[in-house]
Specification:
The protein is mainly alpha-helical and 267 residues long. The chain contains twelve helices and four strands.
């Protein structure tokens, strides 16, 4: 399987983002902020030199990538530049597994469709025997018809869905994901809305299926980082299994939370 992404794309996109905010921002300034010699950064971007694992980890941090993006970035680098053929193959398998499940959309795109129902609409179109009219979509998701219609138009403009000749809506074959850091207002908005949906699912008069659990446990912040990585891997594996299932007749949300309850103590 050919990779759809390259770690250089992450570097270039961050450079472009900074240059949009500051047109005078140069490659030299970028190399300074990344703490990489300008000549070496130029060679990396031009494919003349590769990245070691330690360099990839350091760059991923400097690029302010989210935890899942950092893992993906490092795996992309390892799949190409790891000294061991075994390590290259293992990294490539992780890359291919992630690309098979999700196609990342840009943060600027996600900001436009960060309300929960945009994602829900793209997925409900994949249900078996579902008649994808505006009225049916609105009814199944509890939306107003005009809200549904506007959402469909926006998703179509972004090429995330298509309208057939007989006026029915269909989702394309890609599976989209978005994972952005805490600086993303759109991401915070989306997750807060999904927490609200989870609360609604627990209401006494709600007949929908739900399964939730919560516990608190003391641990170290270092161990918490390790567990957060395992949770991300678990989420990826579960989503892949669900997406490969047959006879899809309902839409479910998988939401995981893992956060610190205590205040950070000053040194």
């Amino acid at each position: 399987m050919t990779k759809k992404h390259h770690y250089r794309d992450f570097i270039l996109k961050e450079l472009e983002r900074r240059q949009r905010k500051n047109p005078s921002y140069s490659l030299r300034a970028f190399s300074r902020d990344l703490e990489v010699p300008c000549s070496r950064l130029s060679e990396i971007l031009n494919g003349k030199v590769g990245l070691s694992e330690s360099r990839a980890v350091n760059l991923a941090t400097k690029l302010n990538l989210s935890p899942s993006e950092r893992e993906f970035f490092v795996d992309l680098a390892l799949s190409e530049h790891a000294r061991s053929a075994v390590l290259r193959e293992m990294a490539l398998q992780r890359v291919n597994a992630r690309e098979e499940v999700f196609e990342k959309i840009g943060e600027d795109q996600f900001a436009v469709i960060s309300d929960w129902y945009y994602t829900a609409i793209t997925q409900i179109l994949k249900l078996k025997d579902f008649d994808p009219t505006i009225q049916n979509i609105a009814q199944r998701l509890g939306l107003l018809t005009d809200v549904t219609e506007k959402a469909l138009e926006r998703l179509e403009a972004m090429k995330l869905i298509e309208k057939t000749a007989d006026g029915k809506w269909t989702s394309n074959d890609a599976k989209y994901s978005s994972s952005y850091g805490g600086s993303s207002e759109a991401a915070r908005n989306y997750f807060m809305q999904m927490q609200t949906k989870a609360t609604e699912a627990m209401s006494a008069d709600n007949k929908r299926r739900w399964d939730m659990g919560c516990t608190m446990v003391p641990t170290s912040r270092e161990k918490a980082k390790e567990i957060a990585g395992k949770i991300r891997q678990f989420r990826l594996e579960v989503m892949q299994e669900l997406q490969n299932s047959e006879n899809k007749d309902s839409l479910f949300a998988l939401s995981t939370s893992f956060f610190e309850m205590t205040d950070v103590q000053p040194h």
